[in-house]
Structures
1.
Amino acid sequence: MCPVRSPDVVSPSLTPTSYVVLGLVGAFGPCTSYNLKQFVSVSIGYFWPFPHSQLYAEPVRLTELGLLKEEQETTGRKRRTYKLTPAGREALGDWLAEPNDEPTEIRDLSVLKLFFGAQAEDGDVAAIARHAVDAHRRRLAEYEQIARNTGIEAHQRKTLEMGLEFERMAIAFWEGVATQ
Amino acid sequence: MCPVRSPDVVSPSLTPTSYVVLGLVGAFGPCTSYNLKQFVSVSIGYFWPFPHSQLYAEPVRLTELGLLKEEQETTGRKRRTYKLTPAGREALGDWLAEPNDEPTEIRDLSVLKLFFGAQAEDGDVAAIARHAVDAHRRRLAEYEQIARNTGIEAHQRKTLEMGLEFERMAIAFWEGVATQ
DNA sequence: GGGTACATGTAATCAGTTACATGATTTA
DNA sequence: TAAATCATGTAACTGATTACATGTACCC
């Protein structure tokens, strides 16, 4: 009586990259891979970086799955413009409606080096810490610059605030490490 | 006339996973993949997770590169035990001596969903935020439990403190999102 | 002595990265 | 008009993930 369902056919297992693309195309309206690349590089790319080639490859996959529709210019650069299909909008909406259980990953090579600091030479850890302080200060300055733009959508601003908080925390943390 | 060189032979380009394995074997002394797995799961695996199959595959690669030495039991389970070679210890030391320029990656699906919150239904974002508060509270409790152990090596404890700080920040952040 | 959790791996696939390539615009 | 730089992709490789498989010890 229970309906037979093949779970893997039902959910072709979209990756985070897939949802980034769906979300950006949804927020932007029709756009090219290059448009995506530009916006990513000053927004979510700070948290979740990936090379621009992904922003060319992923829309192709999503188009095959029927979640995006592609239109290619016939003249000039023959740019490919993507837009959400109804199925794509639904997939994005379903994903947004479902709370997340995957824990946060903080991938930071300086933290890895700190973790193994007992095996480093004297002074190495302090140097790493000073370097990290500088890097996080620069990153904080970038975020503050972006935050000066008053036209940012509310949720994106909230996300940016998380970034600001994180950088302040990281600066304080690494200062503590640097000064022993 | 210019000497033919294959650049990839010169720098075999170790990945972060490689250094995690080198660092763990260095810190532990000789150990099996399973030993690595166990320790990772209560330490650096919180920040930098990977499946246990990596901890079987990576030592094989490192052994081929001459950075680890493998010894296999001849009886019973025929476990493979790995230890650092001098070259391995040197590679680890060089890496630790070199400050890091790669920025931190904060990979968090809840943050992604927040970023695209404008396209979600009413209440979705608040639900995501409440879920995230719970998850970070649980994670904080885990970290506090680990921190009660007084025998942790100093650098590893420092790393844990970063985790504690991050979780406190995340809880406050998501509480702010949840209450609008 | 049967089940269940721990322990130890292998195989296949694929997303993601790196590197390459080239056309269009702008600028000096 | 030469040289940068912007824009737009493709190809190849491989590390990482997923899934499978099986042996061993313990406990009820």
Note: Chain A touches chain B through 66 residues (CB under 8 Å).
2.
Amino acid sequence: MGKNQNPEELAKILFEFSYRHEMLGVPFKPRAYQLASESVGALGGEVVETWRKDGIKGLKSLPGIGQSIAEKIDEYFRTGKIKEYAQMKKSFPVDIWGLSRIEGLGPKHIRDLYAHLKVKDVDDLKKALKEQRIRKIPRWGAKSEDKLARGLGLMESSSERKLLGEILPVAEAMVEKLKRMKGVKHCVVAGSIRRMQETVGDIDLIATSDDPKAVMDAFVKLPQVSSVHEKGATRSSVRLALGLDADLRVVPDKVFGATLQYFTGDKRHNVLLRELALSKGFTLNEYGLFTLKRVKGKHLPSKLVVCKTEEEIYSKLGMDTPPPEIRVGADEIEAALKHRLPALLPYDALRGDMHTHSTWTDGTASIEDMAKTAQAHGLTYQAVTDHTKALAFIHGLDEKALLKQCREIDALNKKLRGFTLLKGTECDILQDGTLDLADSALAELDWVGVSIHSHMRLSRAEQTKRILKALANPQVDCFFHPTCRLIGQREPIELDLDEVLAAAKKFRVALEIDSLPDRSDLRDAHVRAAVRAGIAITIDTDAHHPDHYAFARLGIGVARRGWATKADVLNTRSLPQLKKYLEKKKRK
DNA sequence: GCCGTTTTCGGCCCGACTGTTTTCAGTCG
């Protein structure tokens, strides 16, 4: 058994290797270590699993990890440290990772700060700033010292990633304002928001205009802006009052496609795409795809090929256009080259919502008001799934109350036109895996969702056993927000995903994507695994308030990031089709 | 140090902005 298997710390160590090589001017290694660090960060616990199963050989099969780095990871997992890293720390005892968090502070500056002022960490930096010693370093001045102080301030005023659900409307409001300007043809959101990432580090906007300067002037004066980092002819960057940055690029209309492609990212997707372009004799930048000529060993763009739309660019590279949501720099490029991209579920494909609440428990609106809002959002049915009695503090329903609710739903269904309510529940899974309501009561319902709201700290083995027992109950149709995480607030429960997927498949239980902004659960990677396993998905809002129906597009974004198609998602079916599915399940 | 529908050797993404310069280095996305 190893001593230290913390993938997060490992990612930081690899990052520090990258920076150290960069400081020393070593070519190519910085990027190799950077990629390895990102890879480990993204894989998380999977790195440890891979190492446990297949050792160094397994590690080498991971992206960005070859012989040398695999050996270092192996050493770290076995002994808890890496000799070469310890030596590096001895000769350069600097908290590289901590300092690098500061905007504008890169490897060369960290090197110089230590060489001239013996700055080892953020505290040393603060002292040096206070005593105005930094401006005395060669090639530094009062302005760059100020800039560094600002960067430090920004970091300390917590610049954590924000929830997509919170930022998306803000970005769209900014776009709407700029769009209305004279001379502006296009104005759109790019970056991680366009990719529908669950959290967002900054807002990337792109505009095309005959009068770029006017757009820039308007941008830095938007009401959401609190200060301006940079303002140029084609690019500006500002700080927003709600605590994150927004960038705007303004380009000529004729290169819109290239710019949109470029600033949609993600970074790794773009690096791979530019490498692919190079291998086919092109070079790609934000102004288009160019044929390449070599002058004195240097690549120079020569003739413009295409730039009007993203599709043109991908097509010239011999591939289909991957939807933004799956541009992560992994197998989407290969799939696009082989013309094997899936037809992702469209944003308007949902017909119903399988998880909603009402004033019967902790919702804020009556069943009827919720139904009317759902219908206004284009849905034709929804399941009413209030909580059960284990959640006593919100008056969860017992069997008797549930029957009473069913009678109300019967009455409402007679009254509603073009909309149907399904009788359902969000039934608690108790600690031992039994359900909070009697099977006889569950059998009366159209739709039984189950979920966990207690005992979230069970061991992986216990938690998995608990869930498997619940899913094996023949009354259960769906497992709601399976990992129980709350982004930025609560870690996911420990569970063996492979076993849970296998059980869901065996017992024909659907897995839910809960669209609430801080849940986003299942998450993208889990969705992809579920889709691969052929398990049905539902995309629900878990609406506790009429406004929550608007979050459905977040859940659809997650599903698309998980390569889900319309056929994979249960509530894209019409009500008769859904009923047929449920009847078939009951017969099994 | 990693990687392979031109390669197991010889490649390795690209441009804007800032600050301190006087033609460029550093950082970022």
Note: The two ends of chain A are 44 Å apart (CA to CA).
